Amino acid sequence: MQNYVLTADQIIVRLIAAVVLGGIIGFEREYKSHPAGLKTHILVCVGSAMIALIQEEITWQALHFATEYPDFVGVIRSDQARLVAQVISGIGFLGAGTIILSKGAVRGLTTAASVWAVAALGIAIGMGYYRIATFSFLAIMVALTVLSRLTPLGKIKRLEIQFTDLEESKQFVESYFKTHDVRVDTVDFEIRRLEKTNHRLFHVIYHINLPRNFDEFQLVQDLSESSEIKMIRILQ
Q: What pLDDT, on the 0 to 100 scale, is given for residue 196?
């Protein structure tokens, strides 16, 4: 016995909505070169919508079966939240794959959160909760795009520098920071000895907060003018 509550048109509309909304969020992530991009977000949103559609069909078929065969009411069990709950918990494994720990810096947390949010968005679409899906989509896009522009916070970066003269280079770098309103939060310091010359090489990582709209490339170019600085780069 089969009793399809959802029409083919309803299923198609919900899956298309999952592709479009998930794709827009994925495009924003891919445009900013984050680990999970367009295809990943589309598949997560569509997959979550599919699970919600399946769960809805199972629920209504169970109700229809119980109506036709009331003697089996005590036997039939259909928890409408069971499958969708597994999506929410299971998607955490996929989101964890986007988190990268590199040289003490954690990247990908926002993308992991967006994957999790897109899964919830897909569930809302699959269940036919279009108002929830619409407002949720707008909230996600605001969080990913608008908030970063509205907040007056600067950019936090890690600046790696190697130099041979400690006092002169340190004074040059700190003077530049002070002149351009670059705030230093913490400093990691390491001294290495060059094998053949026995000279010391100073390796410093500055955790800095750059003013808003500060040109990172100009920072590197300006500091590289010092002849004592042997290497300089911005760590992500």
A: 66
Quote the longest CA-to-CA distance of the chain: 91
Determine contact, residues 136/120, Cβ cutoff 8 Å: yes
Candidates 58, 87, 62, 90; CA nearest to 76 is: 62
What is the SS3 assignment for 11?
A: helix
Overall residue count recorded for the chain in this entry: 236
162-186 CB burial, b ≥16 within 10 A, e <16 = bbbeeeebbebbeeebeeeebeeee
Residue of 134, 129, 104 whose CA lies nearest to 20: 134
> What tokens does 210 get?
């750059």
Which class is domain 155-235?
alpha beta
68 Cβ partners below 8 Å, 6+ apart?
Answer: 1
Convert the pLDDT of each residue in 66-96 to its tens digit. 677 676 656 556 566 777 777 877 787 776 7
Report the C-alpha gap between 164 and 91 in whole angstroms. Answer: 49
Contacts (Cβ under 8 Å, ≥6 apart) of 151 = none
Using alpha carbons, list the distances in angstroms from residue 102 to 148, 217, 235: 23, 21, 9
Contacts of 93 (CB under 8 A, 6+ apart): none
